[in-house]
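Shipment paperwork, digital attachment
Item: protein structure file
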Amino acid sequence: MRRKLVAGNWKMHFTATEAAANVECLADAVTARDDVDVVVCPSYLSIAAVREATKRTRLEVGAQDVFWAAQGAFTGQVSAEMIKAAGCIYCIVGHSETRGRFGKVEVPSETVCYFADSDHTVNLKIQALINTGLRPILCVGETQSERDANMTDAIISTQIERALDGCQPDEMSELVVAYEPVWAIGTGNVCDATEAQRVCNLIRASISDRMNSELANAVRVLYGGSVKESNAKELFHQPDIDGGLVGGASLNPREFAAIVRAA
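Attachment content:
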């Protein structure tokens, strides 16, 4: 049976001091749930402080992104070895915001090209994480226009296939996949639980086609996109949804703890 996982993506929030304080509040609230893995993903600059704050807790730490090269003249980038040395176990890869695919655009339209992850760079990042012994949380999802055009299944299947290109099943045992419909991220619009279940089942089928059924049944598939206390239980109790990748609600320790309890 797959163990539930709830991960908080803190995005560009909290200084290191604030992040550590948030962890202390959260750790007390989730201590009772020893049957759910809980991960927090702070900004790069807060990872060390958060790792120190989680040492005597059940919380694990992840990064929000990674660069695929081990080292080199790549100003502003952070390698897999660097985030592992800082104490991370997980790393988010291919989030729609790093792909320039926003549910709610909060940057000027002419700057969207700055966020330029592609299926190819996501694949390179996954391979870098695997080679370093880190656990990827691969994000996949469709935009509103793609859903309206009945392209959801094709988009998801293609993103899975391209992200795992060149990877071997025996390397992917710790893979986590998060279905995050772009139109639900930051908008308050949550995917209907029945439809979220259908797409998460599709993700397993895509992994089975690309790898094998054993891996597909073992991989944890999360739902993300406006997850909150009020909808978490229904989402997390679908047979193919193993927890959530939580954005805004993870910034509030009380609400995040309630979401963990819902798993």
